[in-house]
Amino acid sequence: MTHTLLRVVQAGPLALVVDGGRFGVRHLGVTQGGAADWVSFHWANWLLGNALDAAALEIVLGGGLTLEVEQDATLALAGADLDARLDDRPLAPGMAFAVVAGQRLSFHQPRDGLRAYLAVPGGLATPVVLGSRSATPREQLGGQRGDGSALGSGDRLEWNPRQVRGRRLPFDPAQGITLRGNRLALVPGAQIGHFSGTSLYRAFNATWRIDTRADRMGVRLLGPELRCRLGSMVSEGIPMGAVQVPPDGQPIVLLNDRQTIGGYPRLGALTPLAAARLAQCLPGKEVGLMAISRERALASYRSCLDAFR
Description:
This is Biotin-dependent carboxyltransferase. Keywords: ATP-binding, Hydrolase, Nucleotide-binding, Transferase. One of its GO terms (molecular function) is transferase activity. InterPro entries: CT_A_B, Cyclophilin-like_dom_sf, PxpC. The structure is a single chain. The protein has 309 residues and is of the alpha+beta class. The chain folds into 2 domains: 174 residues, no CATH class; 126 residues, Cyclophilin-like (Cyclophilin), CATH 2.40.100. Helices cover 13% and strands 31% of the residues. The strands form 4 sheets. It has a 7-stranded mixed β-barrel. The longest helix is centred in the C-terminal third of the chain and has 13 residues. The two termini are 29 Å apart. The model has no long low-confidence stretch (mean pLDDT 93).
């Protein structure tokens, strides 16, 4: 039986219920959704001994989101440092912590990173829509009310109360995997040979700046103009992390809430770890692209997953 354990006193700019994502439905035009920084999301759940894909809160920017505790519990926080506070006590990400009824948990301005993840014992109890609890606002699916909307003032978050003993991360939280480094690994795709040699040199040697036009659908990179010799293309499926190059020559990296098909040529796709790292980049941050083999990308992904065992 679920209980109301957190009440939203003040809603931030964007706090969404997320889980591991919505799969097996892209033929219906329904996107993946799920935690943008899946690594930090997994660690938040790991701290409580949850299933790694249990539903949690993804909090973007902070922006004054304030939650009031209505029942004693143990929660966990991972990912970006959004100047979180329990009453007046600062809370660093990468830890499990106890809360008691009457306390308030608030998030303010980003200090490091963009997205924080708040996990609860066993995961949030929200409606399951097409196999997932994740909110996708554009498609009006999932989330707190099942309609894809972000948290609003007065909402109440529920889960199945149980006693848990919080874990400690096996590394320094300040060195969180997705918050460090500015090199984004990319596996070259089928159209990469159609880009000019100059464009390929620029793509992997230039510094790219994160544009303000960035959200859960995609992130635009600002830098040198890239040119592809391909004309029109038949639209094809778009994978997570796909790096499309539209006619203006400025790459767009597509993320969790991307469209399911697209017709722009692609340099390739970011690795899962690189996509998670990009999801933590604030506008204005500078990044670089680094081509790697599929085999190396797969080995890196498996190594990351092994860390949760």
